[in-house]
C-alpha cells in the first residue's frame, strides 16, 4: 500500500483470502458465547478503555491515517476523536439493553421480551473514514455482545489494524475482533455470505455493491445494514445568514477533499443571492491550501487513487463542455499527482454529471433556483437520500423544508450534523438501517419473546 500524497510505499499487510476469512469466522464463533455472556457493565468498561486509549494515542493514530488516506492532519485528529466518541456512547448503550414485560390476557401467564446479541457479524468499511466508520460499527456490535470479522478497505488497512490492537489491549478477549486485510474482496465476501454462523453484515460503500450484498444475503437470510451512496443537496435561501452559509458550504463540500458520503454534492442557491454567493464563495475557495496532509496549514489533501482523480476530471470536463463556467480551479493542482485544485462551477444544470452523480472530489457545482418548491423538487430528484442541508432564518421554512426533503439526515443551518448520539443513515437507495444513537445498537440485537406459564 502507498501514500496517496507521495506515491511512496508505506507498509505491507497480508493479502488474505478465503482461508483467512474462514479462520476469522472460526475465532469469532468460538469467542461468541463468552463475550455475549459477559455482563454489560464489563463490556462497557472495555469500550470506555478503548475510547480513552484512542484519545491518548490521538496524534500517532492521526498520523497513520494521514499517511495512508491523505486527509490533512487536523482532520485526521478530529476523526480519531469522533471515532472514540462511538466507544464512549455505546459503552452507555451496553448498560441500557433493557427487556420488556407485556401485560398478559390471562392470569396464569407472564409475557417477556429479551434482547440478545445477533451473533457473529461481518463489518465492511470504506477508505474515506478508516477509523470512524469501523468504530461506528464495531462499538455497537461489541456493546451488544456480538463478535466480529472486520474487512477494512484495501487502500486503508493500517488504521483498522491499529484500532484492533487497541481493542485487544483494552481487554477484549481473543477472537472478539478479527481483522482480515485483502486486495481482492471477493473471496472474503464469498466466505462470509455462505457461512451460516455469520448472522449479520454491515457495509458502508457504494450503492452498486450494496445491491449485490442484499442479493447475497438471501443465501443464508442474513441481516444487513447498509450505508450507501449519496447526492447531498445544499440549499441556500435568500433569507439565510450568508456568512454562515458560505462557511457551512465550504466545510461540507471540501472536508476530506470532498471525499465524504454526506458532503454537499449539489449547491442550490436562490436566484436573488446567487451572484453574490458565487463571488464570495469562490473567493474563499480560491484560498484553500492544497498539499501533503502532514504539512502545516494544508486544507485539501490528495484524492485517494487515480480512478478517483479521473472521475473528478471527467465530471469537470463534461460540465464545462455543456456550458458550465469554471470560476475557480478546474484542473490538477500538481501535474502527475492525485491532487486536484478546489473547483467552483456556475451555470450548472441538473443534466450534468456533477449534478446527477456523486463526484467524490473537491468540486462545487452551483445551481440557481427561484422558489422553495423548486429547491425541494430539484433536491429530491435523485435515487439517493442520505444527507441534505439548507440555510434559512425563517422558522416556518425550517419545518417545511426539513419535512419535505427525502433524506435520512438533515442539517438545518448546520453543515456538520453527524454525532455519536444521533442516528446516521439514509432512505431510498442510500441504505438500510441506522448507525449511532439509541437506534444503532438495535441493529446488533435480536428480540426474543418468552411466554411463561405460572
Automatic annotation (TrEMBL):
<protein>
    <submittedName>
        <fullName>Succinic semialdehyde dehydrogenase</fullName>
    </submittedName>
</protein>
<dbReference type="InterPro" id="IPR016162">
    <property type="entry name" value="Ald_DH_N"/>
</dbReference>
<keyword id="KW-0560">Oxidoreductase</keyword>
<feature type="active site">
    <location>
        <position position="227"/>
    </location>
</feature>
<dbReference type="Pfam" id="PF00171">
    <property type="entry name" value="Aldedh"/>
</dbReference>
<dbReference type="GO" id="GO:0004777">
    <property type="term" value="F:succinate-semialdehyde dehydrogenase (NAD+) activity"/>
</dbReference>
<dbReference type="InterPro" id="IPR010102">
    <property type="entry name" value="Succ_semiAld_DH"/>
</dbReference>
<comment type="similarity">
    <text>Belongs to the aldehyde dehydrogenase family.</text>
</comment>
<dbReference type="InterPro" id="IPR016161">
    <property type="entry name" value="Ald_DH/histidinol_DH"/>
</dbReference>
<dbReference type="InterPro" id="IPR016163">
    <property type="entry name" value="Ald_DH_C"/>
</dbReference>
<dbReference type="GO" id="GO:0009450">
    <property type="term" value="P:gamma-aminobutyric acid catabolic process"/>
</dbReference>
<feature type="domain" description="Aldehyde dehydrogenase">
    <location>
        <begin position="2"/>
        <end position="450"/>
    </location>
</feature>
<dbReference type="InterPro" id="IPR015590">
    <property type="entry name" value="Aldehyde_DH_dom"/>
</dbReference>
<dbReference type="InterPro" id="IPR050740">
    <property type="entry name" value="Aldehyde_DH_Superfamily"/>
</dbReference>
<dbReference type="InterPro" id="IPR016160">
    <property type="entry name" value="Ald_DH_CS_CYS"/>
</dbReference>
<dbReference type="InterPro" id="IPR029510">
    <property type="entry name" value="Ald_DH_CS_GLU"/>
</dbReference>
Amino acid at each position: 500500500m502507498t501514500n496517496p500524497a507521495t506515491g511512496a510505499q508505506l507498509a505491507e499487510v497480508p493479502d488474505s483470502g478465503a482461508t483467512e476469512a474462514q479462520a476469522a469466522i472460526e475465532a469469532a464463533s468460538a469467542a461468541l458465547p463468552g463475550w455475549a455472556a459477559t455482563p454489560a457493565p464489563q463490556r462497557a468498561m472495555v469500550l470506555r478503555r478503548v475510547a480513552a486509549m484512542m484519545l491518548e494515542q490521538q496524534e500517532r493514530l492521526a498520523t497513520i491515517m494521514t499517511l495512508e488516506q491523505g486527509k490533512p492532519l487536523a482532520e485526521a485528529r478530529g476523526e480519531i476523536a469522533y471515532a472514540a466518541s462511538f466507544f464512549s456512547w455505546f459503552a452507555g448503550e451496553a448498560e441500557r439493553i433493557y427487556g420488556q414485560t407485556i401485560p398478559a390476557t390471562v392470569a396464569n401467564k407472564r409475557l417477556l421480551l429479551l434482547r440478545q446479541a445477533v451473533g457473529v457479524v461481518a463489518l465492511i468499511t470504506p477508505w474515506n473514514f478508516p477509523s470512524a466508520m469501523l468504530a461506528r460499527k464495531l462499538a455497537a456490535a461489541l456493546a451488544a455482545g456480538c463478535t466480529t470479522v472486520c474487512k477494512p478497505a484495501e487502500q486503508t488497512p493500517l488504521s483498522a489494524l491499529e484500532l484492533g490492537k487497541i481493542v485487544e489491549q483494552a481487554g477484549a478477549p481473543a477472537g472478539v475482533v478479527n481483522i482480515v486485510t485483502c486486495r481482492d474482496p471477493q473471496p472474503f465476501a464469498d466466505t462470509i455470505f455462505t457461512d451460516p454462523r455469520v448472522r449479520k453484515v454491515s457495509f458502508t460503500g457504494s450503492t452498486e455493491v450494496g445491491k449485490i450484498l442484499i442479493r447475497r444475503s438471501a443465501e443464508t437470510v442474513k441481516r444487513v445494514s447498509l450505508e450507501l451512496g449519496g447526492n447531498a443537496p445544499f440549499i441556500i435561501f435568500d433569507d439565510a445568514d450568508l456568512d454562515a452559509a458560505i462557511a457551512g458550504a465550504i466545510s461540507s463540500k471540501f472536508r476530506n477533499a470532498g471525499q465524504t458520503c454526506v458532503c454537499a454534492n449539489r449547491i442550490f442557491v436562490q436566484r436573488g443571492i446567487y451572484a453574490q454567493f458565487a463571488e464570495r464563495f469562490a473567493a474563499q475557495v480560491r484560498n484553500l491550501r492544497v498539499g501533503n496532509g502532514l504539512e502545516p496549514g494544508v486544507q485539501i489533501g490528495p484524492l485517494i487513487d487515480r480512478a478517483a482523480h479521473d472521475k473528478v476530471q471527467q465530471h469537470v470536463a463534461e460540465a464545462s463542455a455543456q456550458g458550465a463556467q469554471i470560476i475557480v480551479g478546474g484542473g490538477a493542482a500538481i501535474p502527475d499527482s492525485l491532487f486536484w485544485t478546489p473547483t467552483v462551477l456556475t451555470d450548472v444544470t441538473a443534466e450534468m454529471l456533477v449534478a446527477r452523480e456523486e463526484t467524490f472530489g473537491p468540486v462545487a457545482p452551483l445551481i440557481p433556483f427561484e422558489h422553495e418548491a423548486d429547491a425541494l423538487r430539484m433536491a429530491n430528484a435523485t435515487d439517493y437520500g442520505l444527507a441534505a442541508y439548507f440555510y434559512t432564518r425563517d422558522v416556518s421554512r425550517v419545518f417545511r423544508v426539513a419535512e419535505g426533503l427525502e433524506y435520512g439526515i438533515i442539517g438545518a443551518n448546520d453543515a456538520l450534523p453527524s454525532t455519536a448520539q444521533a442516528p446516521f443513515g439514509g432512505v431510498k437507495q442510500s441504505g438500510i438501517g441506522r448507525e449511532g444513537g439509541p437506534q444503532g445498537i438495535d441493529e446488533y440485537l435480536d428480540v426474543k419473546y418468552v411466554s411463561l406459564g405460572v
